Amino acid sequence: MRPDGRSSAGTLRPLSCELAPLSRSDGSALWKAGSTQVLAAVYGPMAPRKTSLERGSAIISIIYADHREHEDLLEKVLAGCVCADQYKRCVIEVVLQAIHDDGSVLSCALHAAVAALMDAGICMRQLPVATSVVIGEDHKLLLDPDQEEERLLKSCLTLVSSNSNPDTLLGSIGGGKDLSLEIVLACQDAASKAAPVVFSFLRMAVEQKITRQSNTLLSSNYYGKSSLL
Length: 229
Description:
The structure is a single chain. This protein is α+β, with helices and mostly antiparallel strands and 229 residues long. 35% of the residues lie in helices and 27% in strands. It is built from four helices and nine strands, in the order E-E-E-E-H-E-H-E-E-H-E-E-H. It has helices spanning 71-81, 105-119, 147-152, 181-228; strands spanning 15-19, 27-33, 36-46, 59-63, 91-100, 128-135, 141-143, 156-162, 171-175. Helix 2 runs parallel beside helix 4. It is globular, with a radius of gyration of 19 Å. The model has no long low-confidence stretch (mean pLDDT 87).
C-alpha cells in the first residue's frame, strides 16, 4: 500500500483540470494530480517587449517562480511542440504557479501549461506528457509519486513523451543512485504506458469545454429569438 492509499505501483493519482479559471489571460488552466495543484496562465501571442528578441518564429517564455530549475526543460519541450512558425515575431508567455506541491510537481506543471495553451487556442503539432517515476526497493518503479515517496526514495526521474511518438523522449530530468541504463529504459517503458491516460484526459477536458460553450451559445440564440417573437 502506498502512502496515499494507492495499491498499485503503476496507478496514477486522480486527475482534474479546470480550463479558463482566470479571466485576464488569453488562456489558463488549473491542473490537479491528487493533492498537487499547478495554475498556468498564457499571454500571447504578443509582440516582444524588446526588438532584439524579434525572430522568424515564436519565442516560448516560461515563468515558474516556484521552480526556476524546471523552466529550461519546460521551455525546450513546449517550444518543440508549439507550431512556432505560425506566430512569427511573437512571444507566447506561460506563467506557472504551484498552488500545492504534493509530489510530481514538474509533471503537473507541464500538463497545466499544455492545457492553458490549448485553452488559448495556440496551435500545437504534438501534445507533450510528463510522467514522474521513483525507484524503490529492489528497483520497483512507482509512477506519479507523492511528496513522501519522493522524499523517502531518492532516485526519481521525470520523462516527457508526446502523443505522436510516445516511445521517443522529448526530455527528462532527475537522477539518483543506481540509475543504470536498464532501469532508465524500464522507467521509459512504464511512463509510455501511463501517458495515454493523460492524453485522453486532456482531450476530454477540452471537449467538455467546447460542449459547454456550444450549449451556452445555443441557449443564448434560442432565448434571444424567443424574446423577438
